[in-house]
């Protein structure tokens, strides 16, 4: 018999081509002659999607039949990045598909470029959630990601006259081939209104919530395929709509406009991602978004249990819910409400289940990022949850009193309600009380949580605390983004390192191999050349691919200290101006990242960097030895281009401020050396790669606190370090701002008079360390040796390792193998 491959599932070049042409015809409704690039991208996306569906359906069927224990990862953000390339990698058909597309006379890379990435996150926290989904699927862990299908994701960044300008991200404009709406699993979420008490038929005191508004949540499912396994888990994102039943009344009473308005208010809930990173503003719509996706998700879990005929009493056996920061922590109160009010469970039993179901990850030590909701606002939107929180709090404070008698200050600090002034609900306290596990995201971060931010909770529940150092997926951030380096690695140690990143250790031996070093260098060089061409095309700036590529790519925030990097650039520039013949190592300074639209100092820092670039890039004295380039609209897609091109990774946050960082890991894995402080995961990266392969500078977290306690005065450093003074005076003189001495004043004022993030204290140490970097870069062979050792020793930072640790220590969950049915 002749076996003919199916157009929907076949993996041969011919089947792939037929599948593509079929989808171009039936999905896009076009013939090749008039098909746009986007039509072709869509047809290709559907062709790949077709090949995922068998695995997706079989995975769902297996989990349903087995009633498998499942991790629910609740996150307000999932920063997934483009799906197409990643799915090709995980399916193991990248090369075949590339060939098929090329045989059709199309440019494969151009089609990959077409994808509008779902930018449904701000930065580290959202991207971590995406890496974890990849690892959970790759490790065959039954899991569901739950979040919000924002219509507008993180804004698109344009640079105009050196300033950031925000443009709405209309990522759904051309449709999304990767998700499937499941209106049949829609749920309703109540908002506002008031509560009433009543006595039920069994003489039990009950509460009923009469909402002001009901919003419908519609789930959209995206398959999350693991790497070279059959597991395809689900990312389920909720979109808000008005329920038909609700606008009926207004329609019938003839007030059509009012009815449509009510519809609009409902749809607002999933309209836009809040573009703040590491700061909470206490906006009502944000709280509404949180309860919306949390309630939808919990109701969905209950529906799944019913479908599998598992009694609700076993909720915590069926599901473990990981709270990605406090953003979904209202879930603690919402699960209590569902169990007690809607399913009539006794409080004690409901609390037992709830506190066995939740685990909480903290991602920040910054006080301004800790979520707290004004009590009034909270009660208006969630009157029933407010009562439940009071009840939880009363019982909790009784426990505190028993453990720590007569410690009134402690009670005030630990209360779920801040009553020191205007009253607030403290979401971190709710998350700590309602969870059985609490983790930080790097060793140092977890220690600081225990010592400081969550110290009282650590004393109350030491057994809940644990560390889970972050990780990144090597599939997206190596296999997909750096094929040339992967090919070299594979030629020496095979390709099983992709599933077990520790195997990269075998590369250590090749650090001493001249020929390997040469190839390693050639690859880095070629990638830098590509980026240089991109920069030439986009920014019109010539950059020298032989220069040291010094890159800082991350959100703009004062604690991340992009302006310290800027002070270094100015210092080098000043040295050249003082002595144009000075011998310096040529460098290209690249910056990428967005500032929160309302964060003035961060936006001014972007303007400063662009202004420095304007002067430095064209000053003939510089002779092209320094270039400063701002890379517009940094995104996951763009990040994949940037990491492989770096020689030097800037990880220069004030010690004690960056919880972990994950960009630091992506750079090092791609063979960049790090200049960094002892902050977040830098500490562990340095431990792994060896101190001789890491450029360390700056105060330690302890020294930062000690200095603050002594009464830190930035002027002390300004007055004593002539080079520092000169650098700052260059800015304040208006030299970089066409003579305008006022432009950067707000930035300089914070530096000279408060310097919350201690740039001036770390300046000299940073400059000296950068000099070591410049010297080291001149020793080409040794630099390459160090870079190879960085790659070889990054095994710990695979998100597979992080996820295995979560599974063992927190989730108590095992892999489930998926066999494909006939
Ligand atoms: C909160 C309230 C209202 C609107 C937005 C927010 C909000 C959004 C994102 C707050 C924080 C957000 O992200 C914080 C974040 O990305 N933290 C980073 O998490 C990474 C993953 O653990 C760490 O590596 C970074 O160090 C940490 O800064």
UniProtKB/TrEMBL annotation:
Its EC number is 2.4.1.1. The modification N6-(pyridoxal phosphate)lysine is found at residue 666. CDD domains: GT35_Glycogen_Phosphorylase. Gene3D superfamilies: Glycogen Phosphorylase B. It holds the Pfam family Phosphorylase. GO terms for molecular function: glycogen phosphorylase activity; pyridoxal phosphate binding. GO terms for cellular component: cytoplasm. Keywords: Carbohydrate metabolism, Glycogen metabolism, Glycosyltransferase, Pyridoxal phosphate, Transferase. SUPFAM superfamilies: UDP-Glycosyltransferase/glycogen phosphorylase. It catalyses: [(1->4)-alpha-D-glucosyl](n) + phosphate = [(1->4)-alpha-D-glucosyl](n-1) + alpha-D-glucose 1-phosphate. Belongs to the glycogen phosphorylase family. This is Alpha-1,4 glucan phosphorylase. It comes from Aerosakkonema funiforme FACHB-1375. The lineage of its organism: Bacteria, Bacillati, Cyanobacteriota, Cyanophyceae, Oscillatoriophycideae.
